[in-house]
Amino acid sequence: MKLFECQSCGQILFFENTVCEHCRRAVGYLPEQSLLTALDPTGDRLWHPLEPSVKHEQVLYCSNHDDDVCNWLTTPDATGGRSFCLACRFNRTIPNLDIPGNLERWRKIEVAKHRLFYTLLRLKLPLKDRRQDPENGLVFDFLDDAPDGSSSVMTGHANGVITIAMREADDASRERMRVEMGEYYRTLLGHFRHEIGHYYWNVLVRDAGRLDECRAVFGDDRADYQKALQVYYDSPTPPDWQDSHVSVYATSHPWEDFAETWAHYLHIVSTLETACAFGVSVDPRVPGIGHASGRTLGDPYTQASFEDIMQAWLPLTYAVNSLNRSMGLADFYPFVLTAGIMHKLAFIHRLIRESQPAQRD
């Protein structure tokens, strides 16, 4: 994530800000320009962006701003109805806000979802909602378990529908599940990045005629999915899983391997952009370990070379893992990227690059 600057006073701004903490001006995010802009009120809930490059004379906050779950801006609806931003238009089911605690859980979910959309837009990935593609368009359902405990919502993806279980927004519940599942990492943002990987397998692989290429890297997706999951849960962990899989769950089926690898690619480019924004570089003060050195990469979203991304990423993980250990915390990135895993990540990198409009011209 990059940093932003208040156009009124020059104060640093962060992605989720709704007000400049220095001059107290309202701020909002313009997804088309990928920037936060300070705002002047013009009346009737409308605002004038102070960012000089913005062509819109008047904007308004997404309707979900009323619940303090979104700071994105949109243009007024011609009918005078509710206006949702680019990210919130993909919501099909929002939580029942009459349930105590659900508003705060929804806020956490929207923070993660908006960060996901920031990355998807920066990568210039295709996005179609259900109005544009009624059969397979992207849509989100944020659902609670049955109040009587008779059924539990499963986080997952099916034909463009991404379901997020509301309990995943409860930190204690999610950590308990992480321990029970033997996972290194379990976050809301991680869930979004994983599930969107399934969606883009449909869009960029299945529907783009690249099944053979993908199968050569991840294996044959025609293997029975439910049977593969049952075998995964009933069997001991493969001893050599780290040779070619970024997580144990990735061993269950080629679809899950693709989605897990996709999620890690998004982890990498997003974190590298943050490091770049802060001017972070790694230069260990120990002789003879030049392989652990790394300079800031520049904008990872525009990098053509996957090797350059890895050369920046690996030293950063060594450094930040060490910082976390100095605070008695778990590793920031507790994963080992072997040659086999990096081969899969390189496929994701190439798949995304070749899907971008500029790459097709």
Automatic annotation (TrEMBL):
InterPro entries, alphabetized = UCP012641, Zinc-ribbon_6_bact
**Which Pfam family would be a valid example here?**
Peptidase_Mx
Q: From which residue to which does the signal peptide run?
A: none
Ranges for the Zinc-ribbon domain?
Answer: 3-98
Give the protein's recorded name: Zinc-ribbon domain-containing protein
Please report the organism this UniProt entry assigns to the protein: Gluconobacter oxydans NBRC 3293
